[in-house]
Amino acid sequence: VQLVESGGGLVQTGDSLRLSCAASGFTFSMSDLTWARQAPGKGLEWVSGIDNDDRTYYADSVKGRFTISRDNVKNTLYLQMNGLRSEDTAVYYCNALFRDGEWRSYWGQGTQVTVSS
Q1: Less packed terminus of the chain by CB within 10 Å, N or C?
Q2: Nearest to 91, CA basis, from 2, 7, 1
Q3: Under 8 Å between Cβ of 91 and 37
Q4: CA torsion sign, 72 to 109 to 64 to 116?
Q5: Cα–Cα–Cα angle for 110, 61, 96, nearest 5°?
Q6: What is the distance between the alpha carbons of residues 35 and 89, in angstroms, rounded to a whole number?
Q7: d(Cα 42, Cα 7) in Å, to the nearest integer?
Q8: For residue 56, what pLDDT is reported?
Q9: Burial class (CB in 10 A: 0-12, 13-18, 19+), 92
Q10: What is the DSSP annotation of 32-95?
Q11: Which of 40, 37, 31, 34 lies closest to 21 in space, CA to CA?
Q12: Residue 14 in 3-state DSSP?
């Protein structure tokens, strides 16, 4: 199983970024997927999720600004981030949860997003 995030970078307040998470090694379409982030000196924070029925969920802090989506043909998870704020600065991680006999959970290595004011 491999999850590889990309798309992070240094942007200014109000800018947009789209993160991607390329997945391999499991049945992507059957998995529940999550974006989480970790800001400097803080714990891991759940940001958004999408289940295998394409139902989406968002933390209050990003609702209306971020959009999660998935492409089950490209085996890729996305996070479109608009209206970025300094408090969105963090390392962003994707997670895949699926059942393969037993429940399994995997994380990517993360991608840094820095929002400068």
Answers
A1: C
A2: 7
A3: yes
A4: negative
A5: 35
A6: 14
A7: 22
A8: 98
A9: buried
A10: EEEEEEE-TTS-EEEEEEE-TT--EEE-TTTTTTEEEEEETTTTEEEEEE-S--GGG-EEEEEE
A11: 34
A12: coil
pLDDT of residue 48: 98
5: left (phi over 0), alpha (psi -120 to 50) or beta: beta
- Of 56, 79, 59, nearest to 67 by C-alpha is 79
Residue 64 is encoded by which pair of tokens? Answer: 């209306």
CA count, 13 A, side-chain hemisphere, 99: 4
pLDDT-flagged residues of the chain (< 50):
none
**Under DSSP, is residue 1 helix (H, G, I), strand (E, B) or coil?**
coil
Q: Which of 42, 35, 40 is nearest to 17 (CA)?
A: 35
What pLDDT shows up at residue 117? 87
d(CA 92, CA 8): 8
